[in-house]
Amino acid sequence: MANDFPALIGSRICHDLISPLGAISNGLELLEMSGIAMTPEMSLITDSVKDANARIRFFRVAFGSAGAGQMIALREIRSILDDVHGRTKVDWQADADMTRAEAKLAFLLILCLESSMPRGGTITLRRDETTWRFYAKGDRMAPKPSLWALAAAIQPSPQGDPEDEVSPGDVHFALAGHAAEAAGARPAALLGDALIEVSF
Question: Where do transmembrane segments lie in this chain (predicted)?
Fold first, then answer.
């Protein structure tokens, strides 16, 4: 099987960033133990490092390599999602360990849903024995059919070539499509301005 170089690059970047962020976290803990006052500036640095660590862990799953048969524990997934803070809350209701390929696709679809929710909201994920279901609710949602066509089958189909509109900020839509193909999944999306439903 050919190497997935974009995923390998994602894994390498996340791996190399985790170490210095961990060192900064350790340094901040030592400063706190030394009795230094927790000023607003120190609190801002501490919170920023925690957020950066959480995003790197999230990106490592979403953009990193997912080898055949590799598993990821439910507790790790929930730990990652609990640490990520933003305008969108993720309610992960799937209750079992899963393959890293499944988790990769799920995390990429979370990013796709977040991009469609400029004012934030709630993303609920459920999984039964055969099907994943995502429900995203928020105010003034703005899904772009041309981008969603890269990640899932949608109706009606947009005109033109969706890849013509992909920017660096939207690359997760294209990657979700590739991850779905690699996992043998066929996501379908129902797009609305108050609710988006995705299943595979």
Answer: none
Give residue 144's domain range. 87-200
CA distance 61 to 14: 10
Q: Are 131 and 190 in contact (CB under 8 A)?
A: no
The helix (run of H) or strand (run of E) holding residue 154 is strand 153-154
**DSSP helix, strand, coil percent of the chain (3-state; round to 5):** 55, 15, 30
Per the structure block, which two tokens stand in for 70?
């590799």
* Residue entry with tokens 């000023």: 39
Evaluate the omega torsion of the peptide bond into residue 156 and state whether it is cis, within 30 degrees of 0.
yes
Question: Cα separation of 178 and 181, whole Å?
Answer: 5
Residue tagged 């947009």 (tokens): 158
pLDDT tens-digit series, residues 153-198: 875 566 666 556 688 999 999 999 999 998 889 999 999 999 999 9
Residues 117 and 187 both lie in one domain: yes
Residues 135 and 174 in one domain: yes
Domain count, the chain: 2
Identify the CATH number of the domain in which residue 199 sits: 3.30.565.10
Residue 136 is assigned to a structural domain of this protein: yes
Q: Supply the pTM of this predicted model.
A: 0.89
Q: How many residues does the chain have?
A: 200
* Residue 45 structure tokens: 């640095």
